[in-house]
Amino acid sequence: MIARKDWDTYFMDMAYMASTRSQCGRRHVGAVLVQGKKLLGTAYNGAPMGVPDCSEAGCMLVEEFEVVSEVGAERVIKKQRCIRTIHAEQNLLLFTDREDREGSVVYVTDEPCWTCANMLANSGIVEIVFHRSYPKDSEKVSALMEQRHIKFRSLIGYEPPPGTITEVHN
């Protein structure tokens, strides 16, 4: 007999299933919106509807630089990101209603980037659960969630369903 999955595993599995729709060669991300135990929406990262995606037209990469202060010194971090792709969290917010988001939880395969974290912080959700870390923005995002009193946690020890995990290229 197969053991019944706990709710966190169940909903994170759904986020990973949503991520399999992504055509991004760098990162497949899925997100789901849950209120109580009710699934309200799913989303994944990709180009806008009706526009060639990265697998068809290639990534549209930009480089950004960020100055980070460390003990007695500053260092510059170079970030590369694709601007063709709408992130899974952004699509989730675009295709769900504000009233459904109030008091809800977002399960997302990857820790949100700074932009998505800002959007989620104003969306009405009360919790974000993620699996894979995104170290480039982790400290800032954690601090923002703490300031907004949004529960923010990683699923430690979680194993995605077979065939849903993709290699991550930062």
Describe the fold and architecture.
It contains six helices and seven strands, in the order αββαββααβαβαβ. The chain is an alpha/beta fold and 170 residues long. Strand 6, helix 6 and strand 7 (151-154) form a beta-alpha-beta unit. Helix 5 (114-121) runs parallel beside helix 6. The radius of gyration is 16 Å and the shape is globular. The model has no long low-confidence stretch (mean pLDDT 91). One of its GO terms (molecular function) is tRNA-specific adenosine-34 deaminase activity. Its cofactor is Zn(2+).
Features:
170 residues; alpha/beta; five-stranded mixed β-sheet; two-stranded antiparallel ribbon; 6 helices; 7 strands
